[in-house]
Amino acid sequence: MYSQRSQAMTKKRTRTSVLCAEKFDMFSATVNLVQRVSCTSSCFSASIAKRGIVHASQKSAAFAFPNFEEMGLKYPMTTKPAKIIKTGMWTPPPVPLGAITTDHFMPGIPFAVSRTENASLPVYTDYKGGRTKVITILRRIRGDIFELQSEMSKVCDGREVIIRPGKLVVDGNYHARLKIWLSGLGF
To answer: What is the CATH number of domain 58-185?
Structure first.
């Protein structure tokens, strides 16, 4: 009796393991097909290649140190930031914080960007649409907003810059590039 029951259980386990193996083979064949199809398209990384979907939030940020002279800016960078801390692209202010007043405009530039209380430039990155869309926001702006909008568009690879109350918004991750450009202008 014990041996018959043991043989029946062994047959059942064998049958189950064969079915599981067949299902696993079908699954791995499907995964291999998906990997082959997605790898023929442009691959950004191995994990993204397996999925085959690249959202804007998964793309890398714009290059922070392009040649600003070739962009055709009306107001070129006057100084090169002496020190850049890469984690947040923080640069020290050009003048001590106590010396900056609310009327601080750089000579010859019709717009101004005020630093925050902790001496950072007010450039922020936000994610919209379920973290599939990246936008860059510039706040604390004064002066000729339209001139700043046209210059910012040139810095951001010709992307459209949208004017919102108290801020400028551009699609894409231009956080580091804008901070380098603004610190080069003297803000």
So the answer is: 3.30.780.10
What pLDDT is stored for residue 138 in this prediction?
97
Q: Which amino acid is at 104?
A: H
| Phi, psi (rounded to 5 degrees) for 69 | -70, -30
Give the residue extent of every domain in the chain: 2-54, 58-185
8 A C-beta contact, residue 127 and residue 57:
yes
User: How far is Cα 68 from Cα 83, in angstroms, rounded to an integer?
Assistant: 18
pLDDT value for 110: 93
Mean pLDDT by 10 residues, the chain (187 residues): 57 49 43 39 48 65 80 86 75 63 70 90 92 92 95 94 96 92 89
Distances in whole angstroms, Cα of residue 109 to Cα of each of 86, 178, 185: 27, 16, 9
| Contact in structure between 77 and 68 (CB atoms under 8 Å) | yes
